[in-house]
Design brief:
Elements (H helix, E strand, L loop, with lengths): L1 E11 L5 E11 L3 E5 L6 H8 L7 E6 L2 E2 L5 H6 E4 L12 H11 L4 H14 L15 H13 L5 E5 L7 H16 L3 E6 L5 H4 L2 E5 L5 E5 L1 H6 L1 H6 L4 E6 L3 E8 L1 E8 L11 H9 L2 H32 L3 H16 L1 H11 L2
Parallel strand pairs: 3-8, 3-9, 6-7, 7-8
Antiparallel strand pairs: 1-2, 1-4, 4-5, 9-10, 11-12, 12-13
Amino acid sequence: MDIFNVREISFNYKNGKKAVDRVSFNVNAGESLTIIGTNGSGKSTLLYLLNGLIKPLSGDIKIFGKDGHAFSPELRKRISLLFQDPHAQLFLLSVWDELCFGPLQLGLGKEEIHRRAEDVLRLLDIGHLKERGPWDLSGGEMKKVAFGTCLSINPDVLLLDEPTTGLDPRSQVEFVDLINELRQAGKTVITATHDLGIIEDISDRTIVLGEDHRVLLEGKPWDIMENTDALLHANLIHKHVHRHTWYVHEHSHFGTHEHEHVVLNEVSDASSIKNEIREAAFRMTDLEKLKKLLAHWAEHNEEHAKTYLEWAEKAGESGDKEIYNILKEIAENTKKLDGLFEKARKIVGK
């Protein structure tokens, strides 16, 4: 059964800015769909359209087989939206009040309302926040509470807008695990994200929105991740190549900085690399290649140390002291290698 049947919908904001342009797709009951795209591609707007907060200027949406233009109270009970910014979702005096608010609007009895709120506190491990005000929470805690307000109405469909943004690594893993628990429970989950690191873990299918606000690609998440041309076109990754006289150093950026060193013994014929450079690399002995790699790592060691320190600072800002301390120690130990790498550089430069 189709939960959503979306046909050629478009939406512009009042300032004339285009947000969604002739987008079509279906979502089946129990399916987990990820919608990926760069900032401004229309992901959030698309979730607002699916949730009935706004109506398309053209095209058609059917929700549970009914006209989505007339979003009924019944559909409001069955579909819940997690906003990207939890400040837009939390407005009461305590976490407990926030978790009770949704069930109260459903007309449930006091005992059932309290049972649901307690269940959510246990599920998200936020019982210690029960009496706290939303303004008195960290960003990660606010995100969990906002998610809890969605879960407390026990919807059939969850629309999640960048659920892992701003979370420390441990909380990100917890959210991924929770999304998968919801999938196993038969919930339909639609997640808008530009975090490519999670889509294979949480989805059955992925839609890529291009910067033109149209569907660029649709398919299995692992197939999408292998289609680097499409991801580059959508500006979700970028690639640049450093050419050295002996090997290619190619970076692909998937949010974090991942890079691969390809020694030319294994590199494919690349028109951008001159034949004489390839031939020179093939003539190099293993020891010569090792020396070149050592010289390269000596050149970039300081940059690596800075990267680890930046990661540590992000972990510290997110409140994870354990990860902060580990990353800071890695950064400090990496920086200590500068002296050894300098010696190595002098040796290989002889």
